[in-house]
Structures are given as C-alpha cells and as structure tokens.
Amino acid sequence: MFKIDLTKFKKYDKPGPRYTSYPTAPHFNEKFTHENFLDEVIKTNYGKGLPDLSLYFHLPFCDTLCYFCGCNMLITRNRDRVKEYINYLKREIDMMRTYILPDRQVTQLHWGGGTPTHLMPEEIADLASYIKSSFDFKDDSENGCEIDPRDLTKTHLEALRNNGFNRISMGVQDFDEKVQKAVNRIQPEDITRQTVNWVKELGFSSINLDLMYGLPFQTLQSFSDTVDKVINISPDRIAVFNYAHLPWLKKHMALIHAEDLPQPEEKLEILKMTIEKLTSAGYVFIGMDHFAKPDDELTIALNEKKLYRNFQGYSTHAGSDLYAMGITAISQLHNVYAQNYKTEKEYFNSIDNETLPIAKGYNLSEDDILRREVISKLMCNFELDFSDIEKQFNINFKEYFSWGLNNLDEMINDELLILKDNKIEITQMGKLLIRNIAMNFDGYIERKEDTAKYSRTV
Q1: Cα(first)–Cα(last) distance of the chain, in Å?
Q2: How far is residue 90's CA from residue 95's CA, in Å, rounded to a whole number?
C-alpha cells in the first residue's frame, strides 16, 4: 500500500508534460510534411529483422458531448457521415499498406476515439475484417477497443470479439448521479456492471475502467464510494485521470462551472484516498495514472523492466513501429512523429489527392532520441543506470545531464529519489511525481524552448 505525503503533492503540483512522447506534441510543426513521413516509412521498411507493427485507428464519433472530454471527437448522429469516414479510413489503409513490407506482423491493435462503438455492429465487423485482411497479425496480438456502455448492445461486443478483439476499455469517471449530470454523462452503475458481465461472458482477456477525479461536485466521500464500487467490479486494470479544466483549449469545458469543481486541497485528498484504496485492494501502481492486478501483463512487464510508453499510455510492446490512421492520429517511427489532419475536410482532401494525410510532425535529433530513452527509462522502470545510457549513446552521462542532475537536490531531500554514484532510483512517493522528476532531463525545458501549456502533474 502507498503512504502518501500530501505536503509533497502540494509542493510539486505544477504544469508539466505527460511524456506520451518526447519531444511532446506541442513541438510538432507543419514544416514536416507527408513527404518527410513517407521517406521515413520507406527507409524503415528496408532490410531484415524489422520491428513489429502497432496499429491505431481513430474513430472520432460520439452520440453526445461529455463536458470533461479532452479527446479529439465529433458529435454526430448522421450515419452517412460515419460511413463516409470509414470509406476514407479504408483508403488510408490501402495507401499505407503499399509501403509496409508484407511480412511485418502486427503485435498490437487499438481503436480509440471518440467512441468506436458508435459504429453499428455490422460496421465494426466490416472495418475489423478489412484491417485483418490488410495486415498480417500475430496469433497472440493484443487487440483493444474503447467502448461506451451507454447505448451499447451485446451485439456490439460480439462483433468485436468475433473479429479478434481481446481487450476492452471503458469510461466510468464517477458513479455519483450529481457529478454525472454536471458533466453530461449519465451512466448508471447497473449499465456498467451489465457491460462488464457481457465482456467476461464473451471471453475478452482484459477489461480496463477509467475514473476521473477533479470533476464538479465530487467530494472525498462520494468518490470514495465510486472507488469501492469499481474495486467490487474488479476490472483487470484501472486508470485514474486528473480532470484538467482547460476551457481556452476545449471550448465545451466552459459548460463546467469552475466554482463547482473541488478545491485543490480536496482534490489532492481524493487522489490520495484513491491511490491508497486501490493499492490496499491489491492493485499495483504501474505509473502515472495506471493500476493493474498483480498477474496482469503490465505488472509483469513492470517487474521485468520491459514496460513501454507511447501515445496510448503504458504498453508491453516496446520497439514496435506505431502506424496511426484516421483524423488527428499520431504515428511514431524510430526517428519521427507524424500527426494526421484534424478536420474531416482536410483529411478527405489529402486522401483524394493520393497523399498521406499528414498535417505536421517532427524529425527527432540525436539529442531527442537520447533524452527520450532517459525519460522513458525513468517513467517505465523507476530507475536509471547511467552506464547503460553511456554504452548505448557513447556519452559521459554526468557531463551531458549536468543541468538536470544539479536540479535534483531538493527532490533528494524530499525523498522522491535516491541518487547513487551511477544510478537514480525512484522512491514510492517519487513514482507518483515521476513527471516532475522527468522534466529535469527535458532538453526543451533546460534550454527554455518549451512554452506549451500543460496539465498539472497531480
């Protein structure tokens, strides 16, 4: 069980990157074009022993607007609009597939949104079948889909399961009815439990539930009740996200009244209670906002130091090339990030012009690749052996990262980490503040080149 010092939470609660990538998405630029991405795709599909593939498909449509949502989504009930999008998505698959060597296998597939189950069951089956026929999947590939239990039928889940999906993730956020009304997401507990039962009946291997703290009208007691119910439901994984109120970035968040949000002190109390309850119930803290049962693949990967982090969060598939399709989707190859257009019009026009729908991206420098490795090791392993980095990149670690190492004294005094002669070890409390620790090795922060607005670290 975690024992949490609230004074340290308060002290280190400041804006900072989530490091689903390094450099982070605000550094992507429009000078990076579809030609840059295509060059890298071709280059990384040459030779033998190439990494496996990870595929992401963005299905942005939702039936109703959740006021807290920070995702790239589109509200529609126009079925023709959905069908048109799926047709263009298939065309992007065809385009991308021509450049990827046919013997490269898919080890991971994820559908995100939006709400992928906004698709009708027959549309799910059609798209899934098209993807399966376009790529070579490993027998043990991890195939996950985000779902919304509202308006979900068992037939939706059967369509997913019959087409190779074996993992499900769905939002709960909070079971309290007053909170649900305030964020425009009415999801009774019995609907959630019914969906979990269906998922288990159909033989999915894993289910994740998302919670969110910091929503309007949440109290320590009300959210404690929600956490107790989620523990009783007993999902394999639980994600606990911090609601970041950013109405200047997401206009619909202005529908949430700032005066209804819990005060910072109570918000931290809610987080403390949640972590302590989940770890007391046997869930292992994986990192950031993720928890998993002791026998889960994420926990095993954490223990074996094989954990990986990308745009979908923590993963067990390190080293895969991530090809992402659909609007706003972000691909990640070894040396580049590439993000698709955000609007349907731009996305459709690009595909009509037979060009990959890349809006912006980033070519990583040698320094970026080095720092990405360091930050990834800290966030996934909670320790860093300097000699490993020195051998891999032929540097003197203490000289190269002198700025960051010199910043660690206060964190050492606050017992967030232990700095040894050739190693950093993160303490239990430090694991909860790992974003703060990682920022000391961020070159853009060191050079004062990072002006982006980030969510708070706690």
Answers
A1: 19
A2: 9
Encoded amino acid at 326, one letter? G
Strands 290-292 and 237-242, bridge-based pairing? antiparallel
111 within 8 A of 77, measured Cβ to Cβ: no
The token pair at 386 is: 């300097």
Residue 148 tokens read as 């919304």
Please give the chain's pLDDT, 458 residues, in tens: 777 888 888 898 888 888 989 999 999 999 999 999 999 999 999 888 899 999 999 999 999 999 999 888 899 989 999 999 999 999 999 999 999 999 999 999 999 999 999 999 999 999 999 999 999 999 999 999 999 999 899 999 999 999 999 999 999 999 999 999 999 999 999 999 999 999 999 999 999 999 999 999 999 999 999 999 999 999 999 999 999 888 888 899 999 999 999 998 899 999 999 999 999 999 999 988 899 999 999 999 999 999 988 887 888 877 899 999 999 999 999 899 999 999 999 999 999 999 999 999 999 999 999 999 999 999 999 999 999 999 999 999 999 999 999 999 999 999 999 999 999 999 999 999 999 999 999 999 999 988 877 877 87
Length of the chain: 458
Provide the CATH topology of domain 26-324.
pyruvate-formate lyase- activating enzyme (3.80.30)
Give ranges for CATH 1.10.10.920 in the chain: 1-23+365-458
Percentage helix, strand, coil for the chain under 3-state DSSP, each rounded to 5 = 40, 20, 35
Query: From CA 322, how far away is CA 432, in angstroms rounded?
Result: 27
Tokens 């912006």 — which residue? 360
The bridge status of strand 358-363 relative to strand 336-340 is antiparallel
* pTM (two decimals): 0.95
Q: Please state which CATH number belongs to domain 1-23+365-458.
A: 1.10.10.920
Three-state DSSP state, 83? helix
Taking a C-beta distance cutoff of 8 angstroms, is the pair 379, 438 a contact? yes
The residues with which 425 forms a beta bridge, in sequence order, are: 383, 418
405 vs 341: CA distance, rounded Å: 39
